Task: structure prediction
Amino acid sequence: MYNSRIAGLGYYVPENVVTNDDLSKIMDTSDEWIQERTGIKERRHVVNGDGDTTTSMGVKAAKIAIERSGISKDDIDFIVFATLSPDYYFPGPGVLVQRDLGIKTVGAIDVRNQCSGFVYGLSVADQFIKTGMYKNVLVIGSELHSSGLDMTTRGRSVSVIFGDGAGAAVLSREEDTTKGILSTHLHSEGQHAEELSLTAPGMGTRWVTDIIDDNNPDDTSYYPYMNGQFVFKNAVVRFSEVIMEGLQTNQLEVSDIDMLIPHQANLRISQFIQKKFGLSNDQVFNNIMKYGNTTAASIPIALTEAWEEGKIKEGDTVVLAAFGSGFTWGSAIIKW
Ligand SMILES: CC(C)(COP(=O)(O)OP(=O)(O)OC[C@H]1O[C@@H](n2cnc3c(N)ncnc32)[C@H](O)[C@@H]1OP(=O)(O)O)[C@@H](O)C(=O)NCCC(=O)NCCS
Result:
């Protein structure tokens, strides 16, 4: 048995900054409302025509992660790509990354677990490395939300929250099983699937032909729907549970956490968790203020920034935790 360790990290966000004031020019919202409820000040949106896609952003993040890991792209044995906003309905972006990075014909898998996507992807990669099947696995979380949001007042409770970007990690074999990813913990509760969802087009719900035939401007089924307060209430409970599950599995205490990187859903959720666990500002990393919620990309972007800023050192206990649509949630306990 081996462990896996994070050997390299990278992220990419589009240059185009969209502030809360920018949004208030196109919908009935305000900087005050958005900051007070979510902590978000600005986010990045791909400019239509600039050529950035979920895959291309993932590729840019991956190049940095590979370079920092010290391996060559030819050493990558497997690709895991987490997103809810793929370039195509099919095939998924994993194979596009294999093509665009010029990686040899290794396996590529797509993970469909929304805000928990990166933690799920990390867990998949970790299992392949633990069993000895693969040595180096590339894990990417990338989202292009802005092209699919309802940017009118009708969609404001969702569209102000989400932003575009990508993060990536190279996971490599670690012979010392007291180091690297110690454990991952994954959960789902499909009972609440529609509480945070995008249901159309779907092969079993709203057929593409129905949407085209109806030509109904009031049809919002192809925009994301979120029952915000219900999501919030579930998120704070599940975040806490899955962090504790990870700590207990490894006989760790809350005080052992050197860095908690929560999925950047809402600054109020992160602050609630921080307060509940009695963690200091130095023990929790947040960047939602700059990027909004980038779903599967949020943890790898935050992890990369925390690492770049020297906030994660060798020997640190790093905890990743996510919650999102599905509902799905998960955590990873890492000895850096
Ligand atoms: C989305 C969220 C910020 C909304 O905050 P909230 O306090 O629940 O707000 P509500 O939805 O109750 O709306 C309150 C009012 O603000 C209005 N509103 C909604 N979005 C608005 C916006 N962007 N700007 C201004 N007003 C807005 C609503 O229409 C409502 O008005 P009303 O009282 O006249 O009906 C909050 O529920 C949340 O963060 N939920 C969790 C979301 C999340 O984490 N999602 C990702 C999970 S991975």
